[in-house]
Amino acid sequence: MTTPPPLGHGSRGDPDSPLGHGSRGDPDSPLAHGSRADPDSPLSHGSRQVVLALGSNLGDRLDNLQGAIDALFDAPGLDFLAVSPVYETAPAGGPPQPDYLNAVIIVDTALACRTILDRAHGVEEAFGRVRRERWGPRTLDVDLIVCGDTVSDDPELTLPHPRAHERVFVLLPWHDIDPGAEIPGRGSVAALLDALGHDGVRRAIGSELQPPG
Prior knowledge:
Elements: E1 35-36, E2 43-56, H1 61-72, E3 78-83, E4 87-89, E5 100-111, H2 113-126, E6 141-147, E7 150-154, E8 157-159, H3 168-177, E9 182-183, E10 187-188, H4 189-196, E11 201-203
Parallel strand pairs: 1-7
Antiparallel strand pairs: 2-5, 2-6, 3-5, 4-5, 4-11, 7-8, 9-10
Helix pairs in contact: 3-4
């Protein structure tokens, strides 16, 4: 398994990055409908569910995803809930490039949304992520999809993720582990999937992610 170097704070949000897919959690726990909140508050008002999407199409893709999961939990503050099955996804836009492996994880946390974003981007950097071109290939994506019921139009931390509702490779694995999930302001993940279909996304048979070790 790839072992990343110590993490930095990471760069601010990349709304154009392809997203990932996620294991078994509580299928009866839909996420709350959105309300305005302060994503910069050091702690939320109690714990909340956060959804992170993972993707990789360079190097050992599965190893990159597993390494990202392990690295996210190296520091305290995140409680693991679920990781989805792995999906393989044709690239959405950008230059010619390999297919992605994608997954989604759900965590419980009282950390601020911006703190989670910084940790996610620190993990990306530790795995050699370089942002050279829009929708270009990458060793690793770790995208913050929803952070409890927080709704933010801050260009550096837009919540929910502005394109998650259009991305089958986010919605499908998320639905696998939380069939009642909702995106604040967009509706249920199940309804969004029904409208989009499943074209271009398929289960990666024989690929499986483990909880953080």
